[in-house]
């Protein structure tokens, strides 16, 4: 893992962890394409404040960040929740069956994490 002093702005420092100082930010990836993961990155780079309401299992009362593409997507879903289902169905049709099952599991885990976050 990259140490904070060696990291460039936006670099990932640790997975499944929380920020320890003001140079570190809490981030998650774009669940729709990579499966859900969260991590700590050095402040800066391409990370944008994410509105999705997620919290890590240990709780977190500050903002968290995600890639700009994910943040844009979450703002769209907030306006029209139905596009979330439509996009998933379209995406899953292109995958082999075993991959579809894995993605469905990850999606449920993500939605449960979101509910715990008080969405
Ligand atoms: Zn988020």
Task: Please supply descriptive tags for the structure shown above.
119 residues, alpha+beta, two-stranded antiparallel sheet, 17% strand, globular, binds zinc ion
Explain the overall architecture:
The chain is α+β, with helices and mostly antiparallel strands and 119 residues long. The chain has one domain. The protein contains four helices and five strands, in the order ββαβββααα. It has helices at residues 31-34, 68-79, 82-93, 97-116; strands at 12-15, 24-28, 38-42, 47-49, 65-67. It binds zinc ion. The site of zinc ion has 6 residues, from loops. Zinc ion is lined by residues 28, 50, 52, 54, 64, 66.
Summarize the structure.
With 119 residues, this protein is an alpha+beta fold. It has helices at residues 31-34, 68-79, 82-93, 97-116; strands at 12-15, 24-28, 38-42, 47-49, 65-67. Residues 28, 50, 52, 54, 64, 66 line the site of zinc ion.
